[in-house]
Amino acid sequence: MRLGLRLPQRLGVDLRHDLVEAARTAEAAGYASLWTYERLLFPRTPVEPYAGSNEPWPEHSRQAADPLTILTVAAVATEKVRLGTSVLVAALHTPVQLAKTLATLDRISGGRVIAGLGTGWATDELRATGATRADRGRFLDETLDVFDAVWGSDPVSFRSPRVVIDDAAVLPKPVSKIPVLLGGGGNNLGRSTTSKAVQRIASRADGWLPVMTTPGPPGAADLRAGWDRIRQRASECGRDTARMQMIVVGNVTFTDRPAGPDRAAFVGTLDQIMDDVATAAEAGADELIVDLNLQDWFTSTHQMLETAVEIRDRAAAS
User: Fold this and answer.
1) Concatenated DSSP letters for 10-40?
2) Which residues constitute the domain of residue 206?
């Protein structure tokens, strides 16, 4: 299983200097990929709690620097690592502009981009860009349709309720087809009674970006069940499932002492975090994204990177 690292975007990061250090350090340490996430704004009185929980929005979310700008810096600072988003909220973007930006980044990086997309959850963010929660799935599907059109050969003609392209060149094109992965479902997808997320990933995407929330054998079993459902449906759609990837997200929070048996995945001591890395591999993940942006006790990006390198070294040695 490969390891990827989410780049620092949070409050307190020195964007002018830290990003280049982070990208180069991660590549030198053997990380296979670098990732960014999207958070558009930080409402003082949000419409809903954070990310489907009952918790308030965490302080570190006051800043999430623009994900595609961050990846452009990383593209120039590195040579080999892949560059991914986990995830961009489709409804926050104009589809043609997003397709063009991703294609440009893919050209700059020499074909290293992975586009991770999702529907989003924050009403405050959706309203800021003129969308609603009811638009989320429709706008994501439309964005995928636009990608297919404008990343194909010119001239491009396309029509949807929001987008009209009439016999036009849309350049630059990606180096090759950019892999598009979709988030959604997490550990619960294996138990889900709805097939909407499964159907969209299976029929439209090159893979799945679940957040691992349950540790140990139950968490591995749930992820495997969700991934099996996706691949089964993809096979029924006539797709080559061998070319699809499951890239798991691990949102790390360290504790001073071992977390109890009811802990969430990637919450605990370093030894417990490494157990969760092994669980992701057991679940069949092709790659694991290590996200240290949530960690409040890091005093500097350099300290964060020391921990990231230790995680990578311990994973390589296991």
Assistant:
1) STT--TTTHHHHHHHHHHHHT-SEEEE----
2) 188-285
Report CA dihedral (289, 294, 296, 301) to the nearest 10 degrees.
Answer: 50
User: Which two three-digit tokens encode residue 241?
Assistant: 């499932």
Please check whether residue 168 lies inside any domain of the structure.
Answer: no
String of DSSP letters for 77-128:
H-SS-EEEES-EEGGGS-HHHHHHHHHHHHHHHTS-EEEEEE----HHHHHH
Contact between 270 and 255 under an 8 Å Cβ cutoff? The reply is: no
The Cβ of residue 153 has, within 10 Å, a number of other Cβ atoms equal to 8
Q: Is residue 199 part of a domain?
A: yes
Q: Which backbone phi and psi does 120 adopt, to 5 degrees?
A: 80, 170
User: What is the rounded distance in angstroms from the CA atom of residue 197 to the CA atom of residue 205?
Assistant: 11
In a domain, 163, yes or no: no
Q: Distance between CA 65 and CA 133 in Å, rounded?
A: 23
Tell me the three state secondary structure of residue 143: helix
Q: Which two tokens stand for residue 151?
A: 């990343």
Q: What is the β-pairing status of strands 156-159 and 180-183? A: unpaired
pLDDT tens figures, 189-210? 655 545 788 999 999 999 999 9
How confident is the model over 130-171, as pLDDT tens digits? 999 999 999 999 999 999 999 999 999 999 999 999 999 999
**What is the spatial distance between Cα 124 and Cα 93, in angstroms, rounded to a whole number?**
15
Q: Is residue 34 part of a domain?
A: no
In the chain, the number of structural domains is: 1
